[in-house]
Amino acid sequence: MTVTTQPPALTDAIRVAVPERSLRHDVRAVSIVWRRELIRFRSDRLRAITSLVQPVLFLFVLGTGLSRLASRGMPAGVDFRTFIYPGVLAMSVLFTSIFSAASIVWDREFGFLREMLVAPVRRWAIVVGKCLGGATVATFQGIIFLALAGVAHVPYNPVLLLTLVGELLLLSFTLTAFGVMMAARIKQIQAFMALTQMFVMPLFFLSGALYPLNGLPSWLSVLTRIDPLTYIVDPMRNAVFSHLSISPLAVDTLSPGITWNGWVVPLGLSLGIVAVMGAGMLAVAIAEFRKTE
Amino acid sequence: MTQAITVSELTKKYGEIEAVRGIDFEVAPGETFGFLGPNGAGKSTTIKILCTLADPTSGSARVAGHDVLRERDTVRRNIGLVFQDTTLDGYLTGEQNLRFHADLYGVPKSAFPARLRQVLEMVGLWDRRGSVVATYSGGMKRRLEIARGLLHAPRVLFLDEPTVGLDPQTRTSIWEYINELKQREDITIFLTTHYMDEAENCDRIAIIDHGKIVAIDTPEALKGSVGKDRVQISTADDALAIGALADRFGLDAGMHEGLLTFSVPSGEQFVPRLFAELPVAIRSVSVSRPSLDDVFMSYTGKTIRDAEATIGDRNRLIATRFGRR
Predict the structure, then answer these.
(1) pTM here?
(2) Nearest residue on chain B to A126, judged by CA atoms?
(3) Which residue in B103, B112, B136 has the most chain A C-beta atoms within 10 A of its own C-beta, making it the best mutation to test that interface?
(4) How much is the average pLDDT of A204-208?
(5) Is A165 helix (H, G, I), strand (E, B) or coil?
């Protein structure tokens, strides 16, 4: 006996029953929102290239240019570019993360957001999918920059690379959550860009990405401790410096860790602060998107 | 049998502006129901409430038997939407857009391929499913949205101005798809339009103006309620005919478009009398039913275009206050 599968007759509607909402369904929604970000990133190679321009400029042009001047203050055998590499690596995901969140503003502008908001899924699924998508895309971006580590004399040590990728993922997620939270309120793309731009550069400059956190004037010292980015740049620098073969004194000078009034903040707490901030902003973003007119 | 849509005493305020001012209506299962009115009359606000995108200020609405406020998710599972502005992702292909929708709506994975093919073939886009949506024409995008709205086999399909911004030919073809759809799927359609000719495709129409329903009935009955058909004749002696019409029938006739024109109730029955009693030779005669334009005019005292001119300002006010597009 042969079994033939026939295409469904087009005169009858194929009965499709949309199931009751369940956690599995919400997870499927998270996954498709996340996948959409990846599909869009893949079709947008230009963005991948252009967003590498800025960190490359910082590392090679600014880094090389300043290294002659900076070498006087550097312990022997350490390249200035090695010093700024972790900070610039963090920068490489900064813009991508926040611009991924900007796609929510675009989605609103082009109506696609409404397609998502009217679906029978929990709003958290959409927001979480979006944040995971932005974080993944930004981390990819960071990984491309990570490939250039050797040029800055950072070793390709698997443990170091994995640590850095993990930290990039955490940073990207938090930044995307920040962006999504902003995008919930800001409906115009120009305003969003202007406002995030206003946040991003100070965050970067105050994070200690380009200078060590010790011996700063007190006003700057306080500002660096307020900047959330500080709490991810420091663990990243710590990871890099613990894999360099240089004197402990040099490590202490260049990667002194974050201190609160003399107390050294443990790495775990530092990363915890970033994670809690990310979770908090995610919660605010979800609450914002739950509202209806 | 439960009604597909039940709305009672529904109002919606944006600040002090009342977009919807207490409306009541019911839509039966399988019916095609049209909301006809000028831009800004409250059509889109009503759709938003029925689709759970906006909360009513007061009153209640049930869609597919479920309350739009308390059973939001159940309502969402049972409705399909085609919005006024396109809501497709231009970076994705047609198929990817539908796959996204299927996952969001939890369409069973086993049923998806067949259903995908069915809805895409229905709107004639099966061959273009692999193309990025940004390369589609306006009409193709609208068709893809209709296919997407149907993908999860909703019980009620909402079409908000389904043909706005499309050329007349595309509008006609969109209507062919909708009419075919009515025959093929067991579905209730709720649509809004401000095109009179399109409203005639509906089983019943509600005329809405300034957030209120001013009339609700079948297109035929609404046109009948205007009461009079327009009769145009050409005669051997128009001046004599005008006099005779006034004397014998008490009709006030005038010359329009080169023809002797007057209005009578049930024109078809009047024509035989006209031939029998008018002492002037008649060369030609035409009887036309009132259009929905006449209906709108008779209920609101203005044409739809007049209404849009005044309401445009109110809309802009809402838009600036609430940052809506």
Answers:
(1) 0.81
(2) B104
(3) B103
(4) 93
(5) helix
